[in-house]
Write a structure and sequence with these properties.
Mean pLDDT of chain B: 92
Chains: A mainly alpha (231), B alpha/beta (248), C mainly alpha (250)
Number of helices of chain B: 9
Number of strands of chain B: 10
Structural class of chain A: mainly alpha
Mean pLDDT of chain A: 92
Shape of chain A: flat
Helix content of chain B: 25-40%
Number of helices of chain A: 9
Largest interface: A-C, 48 and 43 residues
Radius of gyration of chain B: 18 Å
Order of helices and strands of chain B: EEEHEEHEHHHEHEHEEHH
Structural class of chain B: alpha/beta
Shape of chain B: globular
Distance between the termini of chain B: 44 Å
Strand order of the largest sheet of chain B: 6-7-8-3-9-10
Oligomer: heterotrimer
């Protein structure tokens, strides 16, 4: 077995491929995360209105996205829904990194379901008496929710939100299956070209592990900073 | 001489939970500056009654007036109305993620549109009044039950209400902390605040209450001044209630 | 809609059982076999990892913790590539896609199950262990006869959730040409070419029906276990018990 030689990764085009892969992975993670948080909040709120249509729609959204594999969701978007779009749109999408767009859409929609459940769980764990006390002081429903319930709910939801952020980050690797040139894609390319499987695999594994740990650590820091004193 | 204007008035108030008649033909009023203690066995409807005033509970029949205002008028701005009614809960219900001062300042800044500095000064003044001036920057989780309830009273007072409603304010407290809360309530009464208090604290009733309402099974069964009520209850149910209370 | 029915009628068998009996088993059947075997083999390994994680022995704690963090931090697809590369090298002979996928799933799920079992063990009142040791049971006997049975019962809903996650994870077998459900759907799509939406909608639908039913079962069991648990646990919030770590989204 050949001795391990990491210097191979520094030659030729490989550094650029790795850098490109890293950049795409981070881009994908960030955009999908922001979208997932935004959508997830909307869906959580939709489930709290009295409107049956909104509640039903939100429930269906959540159940679908949690019970269908993310890979299949990516395929459905990239192969399936793409084919249904009007021809002009398809052409535009193909010229503007369609794979990236569809991967982002699929991943963010999938994770929005988990985010909405996290937020919903947080809100439900706040006793009704908190809302009651705020209303008794004369605060409107919206004010009570924003100033009293939501701040407490988000603190409670924070640990699971952090866990789901890590899942989202790991999920970006699936985008390679539709040709998005993120880190795992670059890893396979380099492996095929150099046959230095251990080196490139180790590098990529360490990157994923390190960034996952960074996300979890950031979560712990946030938890401590926003912790309610006295508990 | 015309009687003093009533601050709180119940007219033919009725409430049902399904088939259960929780409030049965309540007709009563509390005058301005009066302190009324509402007592009775559990399930008598006393908490339900006090919660109908600011519509935390709704009624099916009857009318309620607060400071001359029909509480169920369709044109009523409920939030604005509630900001005029001081309410103190049994379980304090302070907001744990806000400091003591922020708890007190929240409603004045949001509802009364006070400036932050104005609200902060008011909060400091009220905290001094309830004996907790140094605790402005503490958090509810760091306070004892008695301290939390005093903060809750200050929080309600910050809205400058014409009357204060107390729903069993000391029932959730350890015995040694009941005194500090009652002391604050007594001082409020002596300052002329109109108060409706659901409580078991008979000592408090004897000291500052103008009248006692005894409730049982959704009705006000007996009323009277504290001294007569405690030494000489008229009805059998009141007698039983008082003897049960004393035997603890 | 008519297209979907036509596709189901013509290619249904491929989706369900692959080319069997005219070839190897495939489709949903393989998905099912992979999932069941995966979880069945992962459970003992997961229990072992959990015990290592709560043990005071450093030689057990650190490796187990490392494995768990590794599986939580690395994407499953990357792990598949590792096993795909290393297993044949280790065994000195070629390994089928199915076996590769199975080994990967077992290791991956063992880590997640370990955390679930660990949460289950830690949520039991200390009195249970104390009482068992007080009557003279050894550590292993206490674990086997008193702690684990209760912990595992309490964690059945969470483990069922992990089973659902495993089913979803089998879809990644597509990447190394394992003849499971997603692979079958892709085959059909390559044949038809003109009906990608219908094909993948069917694929999503099959996973949905399967996973949703199991999730509902898990929720039902969760309610039953919660009722039983209400008399048992001391000082642990229901939230911490229900979701120690989330099921994977893949």
């Amino acid at each position: 077995m050949n001795p391990i030689d990491f210097s191979v990764l520094l030659r030729g085009d490989y550094p650029r491929m790795i850098a490109q892969g890293l950049a795409t992975m981070l881009e994908l993670t960030l955009v999908a995360w922001v979208l997932a948080m935004f959508l997830g909040t909307l869906i959580a709120l939709a489930r709290m209105t009295g409107n049956r249509l909104a509640q039903g729609g939100a429930a269906v959204w959540v159940e679908y996205h949690q019970n269908v594999p993310m890979l299949v969701q990516i395929f459905l978007w990239y192969f399936g829904i793409a084919a249904l779009l009007p021809a002009g749109m398809q052409v535009w999408i193909n010229r503007n990194s369609g794979e990236f767009i569809f991967a982002t859409v699929a991943i963010s929609l999938a994770m929005s379901a988990y985010v909405s459940e996290d937020i919903r769980g947080g809100i439900r764990s706040i006793p009704k008496t908190q809302l009651e006390a705020a209303r008794a002081l004369g605060l409107s429903y919206f004010q009570s929710f924003r100033r009293v319930v939501l701040p407490q709910a988000l603190r409670i939801a924070l640990p699971t939100l952090v866990n789901h952020t890590v899942l989202l980050f790991k999920g970006t690797a699936l985008a390679m299956t539709i040709g998005v040139a993120e880190l795992t894609y670059a890893t396979r390319e380099i492996e095929t070209q150099t046959f230095k499987t251990v080196e490139i695999y180790l590098f990529t594994t360490i990157v994923y592990l390190a960034l996952s740990l960074v996300i979890m650590a950031a979560g712990s820091v946030a938890e401590r900073r926003w912790a309610v004193p006295g508990r | 001489m015309t009687p003093p204007p009533s601050m709180i008035r119940f007219e033919n108030v009725n409430k049902w939970y399904g088939d259960y008649h929780a409030l049965d033909d309540i007709d009563a009023h509390i005058a301005k500056g009066e302190v009324v203690v509402v007592c009775g066995p559990s399930g008598s409807g006393k908490s339900t009654l006090i919660r109908t005033v600011n519509r935390l509970e709704e009624i099916q029949k009857g009318k309620i007036y607060f400071d001359g205002q029909d509480v169920h008028a369709p044109s009523l701005d409920l939030n604005k109305f509630r900001s005029h009614v001081g309410f103190v809960f049994q379980s304090f219900n302070l907001f744990p993620h806000l400091s003591v001062a922020e708890n007190i300042m929240l409603a004045p800044t949001l509802v009364l549109k006070q400036s932050k500095t104005q609200a902060k000064d008011e909060a400091a003044r009220l905290l001094a009044r309830v004996g907790l001036a140094p605790k402005a920057d503490a958090y509810p989780g760091q306070l004892s039950g008695g301290q939390q309830q005093r903060v809750a009273i200050a929080r309600a007072l910050a809205m400058n209400p014409p009357a204060m409603l107390f729903d069993e304010p000391t029932s959730a407290l350890d015995p040694e902390m009941v005194g500090e809360v009652l002391q604050v309530m007594k001082s409020l009464a002596r300052d002329g605040m109109t108060m409706m208090c659901v409580t078991h604290e008979m000592g408090f009733a004897r000291e500052v209450a103008d009248r006692v309402w005894f409730m049982d099974q959704g009705r006000i069964v007996e009323t009277g001044d504290p001294e007569s009520f405690f030494s000489n209850p008229q009805t059998d149910r009141a007698q039983k209630f008082l003897s049960d209370l004393r035997s603890h | 809609m008519g297209d979907i029915i036509a596709i189901l009628r013509e290619h249904g068998p491929l989706l369900l059982v692959g080319q069997y009996p005219n070839g190897p088993l495939g489709g949903l059947a393989i998905t099912f076999v992979l999932s069941v075997l995966g979880v069945a083999l992962a459970l003992p390994l997961g229990i072992a990892l959990a015990l290592a994680r709560i043990s005071p022995f450093r030689w057990a704690y650190w490796p187990a913790t490392a494995v768990v963090y590794l599986m939580r931090g690395v994407p499953l697809i990357m792990l598949i590539f590792w096993v795909y590369f290393f297993l044949p090298a280790l065994l000195g002979r070629p390994v089928s896609g199915f076996s590769t996928m199975l080994v990967t799933l077992v290791i991956y799920q063992a880590a997640y199950l370990a955390e679930i079992v660990r949460a289950g063990i830690e949520s039991l009142p200390k009195g249970q262990t104390e009482a068992a040791r007080a009557v003279g049971l050894s550590y292993m006997q206490t674990m086997r006869k008193v702690v684990l049975p209760q912990a595992l019962y309490n964690m059945v809903p969470s483990m069922l959730s992990q089973f659902v996650s495993t089913i979803k994870e089998t879809s990644l077998g597509y990447v190394i040409s394992v003849h499971e459900l997603t692979f079958a759907a892709n085959q059909i799509n390559s044949t038809l070419l003109t009906k990608p939406f219908e094909v993948f909608a069917i694929l999503a639908g099959i996973y949905f029906v399967l996973c949703f039913s199991l999730t509902q079962l898990a929720r039902h069991l969760e309610r039953r276990v919660s009722r039983r648990r209400a008399g048992q646990t001391v000082g642990v919030t229901p939230q911490a018990l229900a979701t120690p770590i989330p099921a994977t989204a893949e």
